[in-house]
Amino acid sequence: MDFQAIKREIETEAFQAADRFFKDRLGGQDQYACGFAWVTVFPEHKGNTKLGKAERKILELLGLKKDWTGRAYQLWNPSRYACQNVDTLEAGAEAAAQVLKRHGFKAYADSRLD
Asked: In degrees rounded to 5, what are phi and psi of residue 109?
């Protein structure tokens, strides 16, 4: 697996999805609800096993960090889109989650209002 290629794919698809939403649905205006969006990945293997340690290393190489529970990994604002609209950021997070799913990870997009 080329982890750098996967990381670029996540960033590219997330940005493109957010950009499309921002331009098509919001008319290029940062308006409506402000918030945050991220992707959460739940590792398949226990962390104290060889497979679990390798899986977590891969998640870290992809730019994800442990969440506050220590059981999942998160990537905040995967689109890196410069706006505050929660729907735009959520479109980017959903695209990033789809890329991760295609590569075999159990990934989910999530968001919250600010």
From this structure: -90, 145
What does pTM read for this prediction?
0.94
Q: How far apart are CA 72 and CA 99, in angstroms?
A: 17
CA 48 to chain centre: 25
CA distance 112 to 90: 9
- What pLDDT, on a 0 to 100 scale, did the predictor assign at position 1? 74
C-alpha Rg value of the chain to the nearest Å: 15
pLDDT, tens digit (0-9, with 9 covering 90-100), for 66-91: 999 989 999 999 999 999 999 999 99
Q: Nearest CA to 41 among 6, 81, 84?
A: 6
| Triad 13, 93, 3: Cα angle to 5° | 55
